[in-house]
Amino acid sequence: MSRTGTIIVADDDAAIRTVVRQVLVRAGHEVRTTDTVAGLWQLIEAGVGDAVITDVVLPDADGLDAVPRILARRPGLPVIVMSAQNTLATAVRATENGAFEYLPKPFDINKLSAVVSAALEQSQAPARKTAAKEEGDGLPLIGRSPAMQEVYRTIARVVPTDLTVLILGESGTGKELVAKALHDLGSRRTGPFVAVNMAAIPRELIESELFGHERGAFTGAQARAIGRFEQAQGGTLFLDEIGDMPMEAQTRLLRVLQSGEFTTVGGMRPIKADIRIVSATNKDLRRLVDAGLFREDLFYRLNVVPLHLPPLRSRVDDIAELATHFLRRAEAEGLPAKTLEPEAILRLQAHDWPGNVRELENLMRRFAALERSDVISATSVEEALRSERVPSARAESDNRGLAGSVEAHLARYFDTFGDDLPPDGLYERVLAELEKPLLLLSLAATRGNQIRAAKLLGINRNTLRKKLNDRGIDAVALRPAGPPVGRSG
């Protein structure tokens, strides 16, 4: 049976105090209420209460600022913070000030009851000193939807740590912004933040790019060069598109995560890696592991704290705030000031946003630059969204086979860059992405028999061996113990 106790509730809204009181009394708790920080402090000094629930905005003071003071006076007293501000800054401040939990308003009464029970069961450790700067709404993440509240809560919990974080989400959801927020709010914020897009680096240069190289390590290495790991020392290394990392580079990264040291290409002296690793991908790494394209042991090393970013279609309530923010940013950059009429916002909310936040930002910048009226209408939004669509690319892909699927995939990929171009070397990256699963599936179909696989593919055995080597595929490891079997048809 859950433990019960005396709960102090501080909120200047009488209706909220009443609702919270009723919920807690029904759960068997005794409740004391107040509408000010002064009243809360009187109860704290009197030794009243086994847990505290406080709002942030109170008439006489900030409830969040009171948390460290409460914990200094009553160490171990669980303090639950609730707020209608619902920003990343609020969630981070609550966690850093030592709050037991942060609940955005409006909250589910069952969630509140469960949090209070957990607070009473678990002794709260003394508060940590604030590590993050109180930067308010200047933080880069925007949105107050329930989906984003979960993101904020996770960020707030991992900011004080050096845990490895894997950010998961579709293209355009803001994965690099989250990685930057983890860096800027954490203890390494005075160190460098180094971002690397794994899909943008030619395969043969990845190890040198990450770890650096010594003079003479390979043809053209005329001087020692430091890699991204050395550049990020004392800070954060963000590995974007980690699912595109070649197998040999995965092996070296795994060794770094296991040992905490790395060596340059051609070097012998180990270098201590004093960095936090944050990675991101829009791919399903578990499926890549199953297909032999990603190391399972590396996946578990990277996936210590998974952080899922919701697509924009799952956070419709944030679209108006995001669109307004992008229009204001464009205005600050010298473009004409624009606003959205209410019907235009409704049309934006009805769109499925395959390009997510990046697509919305590009659209708002286009409106700021090209829309003649100061007020953007629903008709203008409809016309712009209609012109953006790739004609039936998704619908036709199933009927057009592999070519249609590839075309639709590449069209979405180009769309994510807006008016810019993807990084150079696209042909090799696309070819590698297609060729590797083709080779793996062919070897699987022939149970590792390279002669049969080469015949199946219509190439000679030497060509197959070279391709396997180029794509980092260990054909011996794929061969089963039993005799090979053929497939009819």
UniProtKB/TrEMBL annotation:
* Gene3D superfamilies for this protein: 1.10.8.60, 3.40.50.2300, Homeodomain-like, P-loop containing nucleotide triphosphate hydrolases
CDD domains membership = AAA
Kindly list the places in or outside the cell where this protein is found, as annotated in its UniProt entry. Cytoplasm
Q: Which ranges carry the Sigma-54 factor interaction domain?
A: 141-369
Give one Pfam family.
Sigma54_activat
Per UniProt, the keywords (alphabetical) are: Activator, ATP-binding, Cytoplasm, DNA-binding, Nitrogen fixation, Nucleotide-binding, Phosphoprotein, Repressor, Transcription, Transcription regulation, Two-component regulatory system
* Main location group: cytoplasm
4Fe-4S among the record's keywords?
A: no
Domain Response regulatory, chain residue ranges per copy? 6-120
4-aspartylphosphate (modified residue): where?
D55
Cite the SUPFAM superfamilies for this sequence. Answer: CheY-like, Homeodomain-like, P-loop containing nucleoside triphosphate hydrolases
State the protein's purpose: Member of the two-component regulatory system NtrB/NtrC, which controls expression of the nitrogen-regulated (ntr) genes in response to nitrogen limitation. Phosphorylated NtrC binds directly to DNA and stimulates the formation of open promoter-sigma54-RNA polymerase complexes.
**Which PANTHER family does the record match to this protein?**
DNA-BINDING TRANSCRIPTIONAL REGULATOR NTRC, TRANSCRIPTIONAL REGULATORY PROTEIN
Protein name as it appears in the record: DNA-binding transcriptional regulator NtrC
> Which species expresses this protein natively?
Sphingosinicella xenopeptidilytica
